[in-house]
């Protein structure tokens, strides 16, 4: 018996007897109102008056029966409305008239009935409870609040700058030899000398930024999380080991999937605190700086630099310009981004032409580095200024408060298009169940080689999929559906755990997780799936047994206005910047699917990390110096890991809970999850797989072959029908 059933039984024991309310009491009625009831001990009471002492919402009439029953040695009065009907409402009171519980019984057939208690409905037959429904109403997602001066700002936030680091490699280890920052009109670059190592160089730059005129600025760094942050952290930790608390940064780091995506650095000078925030611009504009400069038509363009020429021994080199081999790959990559189909001979001609324009003599590595670095800083600043201004003008949103393009997309959607109809699911058990239905896209290679093949790409697949009906705020969890899908097809909309037996076709239609990744197998397996994907598989011959699941109400037109407007801008606008931004704002879906299961990423000593490994699962580690690491690990204590290390799980868990409660605050920062909805993310990706599978089946049915597919692309050997190809959303491009 479940804990829920046991708790209910304490008030009203659930039996297989339909009208088991206790012993019927006599009642005295005057003008259809019950004035008195006679208890089993013979005493007569004005029960209406007793109840009225607590609440005036109950009025007892002649259509009600009164029963007395002892529960836990206390007498209770059961008031049953319409006792002879198939549906009965029951209110339970104690003997003094205080209301305790409300029930509703309904006949299902001659052998079974349902009993609803609060948000739970039990289904009962002669053998007892055989099914349970739990009615759930989710809150809706909502935006995080913006406080402070930025919330009051009525124009684009121009308190921004850029930062960049140049490095060389020694045996695959990178060392910084130049760094700089730029704020409108102020470019400061720093080059290593014989009295400075990489850490000193970085600290000199940070000190130049941590001054009054840049206090509160946001500095964008292109690829901060995967590159620059580790040099900056290494330098800060080195200083912290000698001068603790000179810089405050450890408690002001924002993590995503184990990576640092933002860091706030502060210091005190003459009693006043100055701070700056570093943010990864690549998470907002997901293209190379070279391509961004072309898209945003910046005044300063990215130039070419011979990265591989630089080494520890030639940092002060002055002489002839480096050989063309040091420039070739850099220039080639830039050309390739814009001219994939250009003839190789023409590419080499362009590379040679660019190289020949570089002065041959008196080429200084220091001068060229500082020029190149300054150029990058100014060009990235130009890009971010245009981006931030465009976002504010078009959407009245401050882009500087968003750390990723998906969070910015969500901010715009919630402010301008949202109708409070997306479920926020934070209950761990529900979230974890539905998350198992969130598979994402699948990459498959069917045939590794072919001739005269055709490549098709679906326009805005996820936005198009998001135009379908979405899960709403209400759902019913049923723990014992146990039906073949064909018998309940029209009643399903939500997420279900099923046993699957596929057809004998060539193509698998449902995803399945294995230790080796995601596949679409044939045969028998089980898992959680979105109902519409199950229906699609059933229509194509799959045998599906639905075991249990969450049945949602349907919410219509959840994203229609948002994605339709973006697609119009992307397709019709003559402004290249607006088109590029509209395209990037399609990333709304990524925010909805964030993992809310808590894990910790923090800076700690290696010794502390080793201790953590004895009780928790780790997700990743990066060594910052010989004794300090940036480690990611599950916040929750793992029972299996504790037992593997011969530790008492209960004692460790108790210590963890005591520590958590006594601290009073979290010493690390993560993004808040007020705008995450695993149900919506799962539904959109499922609709997308359905669409892709329809195209695959179409190709196979026409006698074509599949060579390769991924989330939104297909390689085949036949042309698709004309009605499937076009430039509009949901069509494929050739």
Description:
α4 packs across α5, α7 (325-338) packs across α8 (344-356) and α15 packs antiparallel against α16 (576-584). The relative contact order is 0.10. The protein is α+β, with helices and mostly antiparallel strands and 734 residues long. The chain is built from 21 helices and 37 strands. Strands 1, 5, 6, 7, 8, 9, 10, 11, 24, 25, 26, 29 and 30 form a 13-stranded antiparallel beta sheet that branches. Strands 12, 13, 14, 15, 16, 17, 18, 19 and 34 form a nine-stranded mixed beta sheet that branches. It folds into four domains: 3-134, no CATH class; 154-321 and 359-387, 2-Layer Sandwich (Nucleotidyltransferase, domain 5); 428-591 and 677-733, no CATH class; 599-670, no CATH class.
- Uncertain residue segments: 1-11, 662-671
Q: What general form does the structure show?
A: globular
The first-to-last residue Cα distance is 59 Å
So how many helices? 21
By secondary-structure content and strand pairing, the structural class works out as alpha+beta
Largest sheet: 13 strands, antiparallel
Mean pLDDT equals: 88
Beta fraction: 25-35%
State the helical fraction: 25-40%
Number of domains: 4
Task: Tell me the Rg in angstroms.
Answer: 33 Å
């Amino acid at each position: 018996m479940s804990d829920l059933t046991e708790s209910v039984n304490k008030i009203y024991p659930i039996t297989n007897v339909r009208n088991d309310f206790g012993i019927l009491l006599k009642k005295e009625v005057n003008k259809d109102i019950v004035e008195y009831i006679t208890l089993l001990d013979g005493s007569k009471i004005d029960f209406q008056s007793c109840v009225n002492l607590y609440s005036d919402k109950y009025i007892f009439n002649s259509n009600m029966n009164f029963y007395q029953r002892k529960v836990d040695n206390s007498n209770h009065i059961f008031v049953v409305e319409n006792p002879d009907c198939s549906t009965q409402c029951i209110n339970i009171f104690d003997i003094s008239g205080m209301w305790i519980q409300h029930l509703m019984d309904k006949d299902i057939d001659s052998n079974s009935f349902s009993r609803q208690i609060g948000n739970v409905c039990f289904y009962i037959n002669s053998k007892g409870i055989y099914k349970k429904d739990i009615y759930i109403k989710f809150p809706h997602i909502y935006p995080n609040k913006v406080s402070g001066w930025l919330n009051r700002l009525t124009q684009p936030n121009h308190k921004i700058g850029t930062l960049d680091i140049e490095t060389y490699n020694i045996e695959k280890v990178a060392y910084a030899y130049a760094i700089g920052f730029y704020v409108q009109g102020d470019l400061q670059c720093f080059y290593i000398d014989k009295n400075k190592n990489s850490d000193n160089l970085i600290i000199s730059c940070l000190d130049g930024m941590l001054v009054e005129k840049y206090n509160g600025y946001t500095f964008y760094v292109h690829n901060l999380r995967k590159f620059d942050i580790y040099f900056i952290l290494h330098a800060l930790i080195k200083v912290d080991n000698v001068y603790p608390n000179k810089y405050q940064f450890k408690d002001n780091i924002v993590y995503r999937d184990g990576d640092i995506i933002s860091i706030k650095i502060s210091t005190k000078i003459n009693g006043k605190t100055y701070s700056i925030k570093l943010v990864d611009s690549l998470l907002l504009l997901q293209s190379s700086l070279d391509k961004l400069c072309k898209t945003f038509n910046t005044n300063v363009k990215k130039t070419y630099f011979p990265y591989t020429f630089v080494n520890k021994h030639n940092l002060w080199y002055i002489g002839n310009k480096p050989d063309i081999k040091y420039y070739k790959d850099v220039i080639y990559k830039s050309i390739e981004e814009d001219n994939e189909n250009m003839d190789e001979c023409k590419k080499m001609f362009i590379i040679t032409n660019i190289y020949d324009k570089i002065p041959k003599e008196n080429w200084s590595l220091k001068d060229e580095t500082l020029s190149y670095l300054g150029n990058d800083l100014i060009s990235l600043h130009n890009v971010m200024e245009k981006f931030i201004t465009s976002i504010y003008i078009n959407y009245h949103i401050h882009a500087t408060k968003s750390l990723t393009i998906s969070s910015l997309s969500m901010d715009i959607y919630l402010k301008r298009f949202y109708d409070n109809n997306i479920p926020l699911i934070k209950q761990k058990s529900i979230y974890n169940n539905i998350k198992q239905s969130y598979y994402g896209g699948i990459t498959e290679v069917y045939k590794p080689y072919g001739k005269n093949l055709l490549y098709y790409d679906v326009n805005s697949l996820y936005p198009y999929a998001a135009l379908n009906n979405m899960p709403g705020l209400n759902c019913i969890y049923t723990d014992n559906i146990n039906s073949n899908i064909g018998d309940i097809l029209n009643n399903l909309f939500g997420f279900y755990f099923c046993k699957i037996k596929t057809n004998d076709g060539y193509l698998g239609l449902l995803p399945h997780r294995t230790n080796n990744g995601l596949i679409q197998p044939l045969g028998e397996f089980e898992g959680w799936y979105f109902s519409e994907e199950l229906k699609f598989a059933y229509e194509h011959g799959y045998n599906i047994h639905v075991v249990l699941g969450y049945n949602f109400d349907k919410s219509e037109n959840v994203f229609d206005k948002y994605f339709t407007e973006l697609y119009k801008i992307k397709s019709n606008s003559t402004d290249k910047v607006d088109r590029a931004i509209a395209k990037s704002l399609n990333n709304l879906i990524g925010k909805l699917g964030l993992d809310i299961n808590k894990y910790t990423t923090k800076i700690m000593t290696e010794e502390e990390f080793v201790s953590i490994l004895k009780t928790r699962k780790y997700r990743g580690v990066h060594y910052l110096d010989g004794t300090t690491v940036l480690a990611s690990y599950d916040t929750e204590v793992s029972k299996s890991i504790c037992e593997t290390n011969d530790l008492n799980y209960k004692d460790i868990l108790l210590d963890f809970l005591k520590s958590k409660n006594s601290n009073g605050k979290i010493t690390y920062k993560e993004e808040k999850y007020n705008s995450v909805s695993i149900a919506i993310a799962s539904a959109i990706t499922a609709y997308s797989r359905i669409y892709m599978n329809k195209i695959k089946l179409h190709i196979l049915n026409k006698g074509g072959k599949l060579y390769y597919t991924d989330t939104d692309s297909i390689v085949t050997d036949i042309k698709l029908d004309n009605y499937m190809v076009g430039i509009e959303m949901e069509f494929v491009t050739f």
